[in-house]
Design goal:
Strand content: 15-25%
Oligomer: single chain
Shape: globular
Low-confidence stretches: none
Mean pLDDT: 89
Length: about 130
């Protein structure tokens, strides 16, 4: 099961000097700790998104809403420029396709889709007091 859903921002440190914390946008889960990510430069690739990745000297999942977590100085973050909803959707679709291709190469199945809900509860009335 994917620990980081699509749309999650993760900040990683590769140990560079001066310090630069790189933003990664999770586009899709591949297998275990491997995800298709997007970089601020527009690069899309599979990367192991885990504190155990030996390439990282720091690993910082974002706060809810994509906020920069404690321990990361905003001045050191290499982040994304604003993007339109259409650009975001295009990146997400490219990430899904790349994950499908990566899973095919690895010989692993895609994660099961959530089961459809057979009942939906809707608030029909609201009485104050």
């Amino acid at each position: 099961m994917a620990l980081y859903p699509p749309g999650t921002l993760i900040f990683v440190n590769y140990g560079e000097r001066p310090q630069c914390i790189h933003s990664r946008l999770v586009l899709s889960h591949v297998h275990e700790d491997d995800y298709i990510v997007l970089t601020p430069d527009g690069d899309l690739y599979s990367e192991t998104m885990s504190p155990q990745n030996p390439d990282f000297t720091g690993f910082f999942p974002s706060l809810p809403g994509g906020g920069i977590p404690a321990g990361v100085r905003a001045a050191n973050v290499y982040s994304f420029a604003p993007m339109t909803a259409a650009e975001y959707a295009g990146h997400m679709e490219a990430g899904r396709q790349a994950a499908d291709a990566e899973r095919l190469v690895l010989g692993v199945a895609a994660a099961a889709s959530p089961v459809a809900v057979s009942e939906v509860w809707v608030l029909a009335e609201f009485i104050e007091g």
